[in-house]
Amino acid sequence: MLTINVAVLLAVVVVWRLRRRTEARSRFDEKLTVVIVLALGILIAPTPAGQGILNFLGELTSGVTQASR
């Protein structure tokens, strides 16, 4: 039996949608992409990979903040 992880499927859809030319996108198309990306973020957030990304971004932002002082 073949199972597909929903987060992986959404990631593929996001990459596919973002590869299209900007001029070819309608406003509805852009809004749909934002909704898909938000859904992907909600699915990834509680996973260990999501927590690692969150920690990395937290360290990056604190480093940038300290560097700008």
TrEMBL record:
Question: Where is the chain membrane-spanning?
Answer: 34-57
Alphabetically list the UniProt keywords: Membrane, Transmembrane, Transmembrane helix
- Keyword Membrane (UniProt): yes
Question: Keyword Membrane: yes or no?
Answer: yes
Q: What is the name listed in the Swiss-Prot or TrEMBL entry for this protein?
A: Uncharacterized protein
Gene source species: Streptomyces gelaticus
